[in-house]
Design goal:
The protein is of the alpha+beta class. It has one domain (2-169): Aminopeptidase. Helix content is 28%, strand content 33%. The protein has five helices and eight strands; from the N terminus they run ββαααβββαβαββ. The strands form two sheets. The protein has a five-stranded antiparallel β-sheet with strand order 1-2-3-4-5, with helices on both faces. It is globular. The protein starts with a strand and ends with a strand.
């Protein structure tokens, strides 16, 4: 299963992705905007553990962003339980080598269309740290609406931040 973008594709995980995942993910400029569970430093072992958790996805909801034949980032939706089961969370990052080329807004649009077509969901949500203007632009360019700001809801690198909640409804 692949989703084709203009200069990239979204594809399934392969065990051979570990070296590229470790290389591109081991960057504090990426870690600084993600959950603390994102490894930093990002070791080969961490890459292998993550990939092993994604090799047999059913349904497929987490994609490698491949550019010029190599993993360059990750995008996916995480399903939630209970009353939130029709509203998964979107997450993504791309190697700093490729920032500013408009790749992620395209990737977000592809995943949103895929998820609305293939899953019994009504909405996709994304939460952005208050200091992450790049990611807010990505979501706005992909058609998400800023629905609210949760004041001082995040601590990252010892700094308290607002959380900006974005959504797109089917
Ligand atoms: C946020 C992120 C996904 C953006 O992806 P991208 O493919 O570079 O997105 P775009 O090319 O559309 O750039 C987004 C905006 O940031 C700006 N931007 C990109 N690179 C930049 C840079 N190095 N410095 C300043 N601004 C930059 C772009 O100009 C664009 O704004 P514009 O549309 O007003 O021109 C990427 O920077 C990233 O992976 N960041 C770290 C992880 C992260 O933040 N994940 C999201 C968590 S919610």
């Amino acid at each position: 299963m692949e989703l084709q973008g203009q200069c990239f594709k979204l594809r399934e995980w392969r065990s051979g992705d570990a070296a590229a995942l470790q290389k591109h993910a081991d960057n504090t400029n990426i870690f600084d905007f993600l959950f603390d569970r994102f490894p930093s430093p990002y070791t080969t072992e961490a890459a292998e553990t993550f990939i092993n958790s994604k090799l047999a996805q059913d349904p497929m909801c987490n994609f490698v962003i491949e550019i010029e034949g190599e993993l360059a980032g990750v995008i996916g939706v995480d399903f939630r339980e209970d009353i939130y089961r029709k509203s998964p969370l979107l997450g993504y990052w791309i190697s700093e080598m490729y920032w500013g080329r408009g790749i992620m807004p395209q990737a977000v649009k592809l995943v949103v269309a895929y998820a609305f077509s293939n899953f019994d969901i009504v909405r996709i949500q994304a939460s952005v740290n208050g200091n992450n203007n790049r990611s807010m632009r990505v979501l706005e360019k992909a058609g998400f609406v800023k629905e609210g700001i949760l004041k001082s809801n995040i601590i990252k690198n010892g700094i308290i931040l607002d959380e900006h909640v974005y959504g797109i409804v089917k």
